[in-house]
Amino acid sequence: RLIDNYKKSLLLNIYQERLVSQQLDKEILADEIAAFYESNKSMFKMEEPMFKGLLLKVSKKAPKLDAVRRWCKSVNPADLEKLEKYTLTNAQVYEYFHETWTPVSVVAPKVSLGEDELRRKVSEKKMVEFSDSASLYLINVTDYLPVGELKPLDLAESEIKELLVNSRKAEFLQKVKREIYDAALNSGDVI
Hints:
By secondary structure, the chain is of the alpha+beta class. The chain is built from seven helices and four strands. The chain is elongated and about 85 Å long.
């Protein structure tokens, strides 16, 4: 009897998943995402600090370090181009993430600082410079989000999509169950 119940449960689950994959519209429009975000902002708090910017690690003996410092701070596209050309031959690490939120925990292993120390430095300054025995680290921070602050919409978007799809799925399955029950009731299969 227990095995029969388990089989029925398994079959029901497989049927529901196939039905969902065939009939549920999983496309979430940008307007829906924005509306959900606006009415549920308290759900979207930063769980870890993130920042946008760039990271450059070069040898302390690398050429043109004064120019490199200027290029790292600059927003001028010509300076960025010079920096990128320079990094091809001189950088030990170069990461450009001006457009992408990057967790401090992802950057910390690439520099000679612990995560807490790096978080403190990037939260305080736009340009962070430090060194170890062999390398110079330059981090240009263009934006910073601490723990507990409201996530920007672009960071919350995938989470919102998942919530909205799961909500649609639950409503869809509830509707299907209701329709099956009503059909069985009307045909006299349910007393």
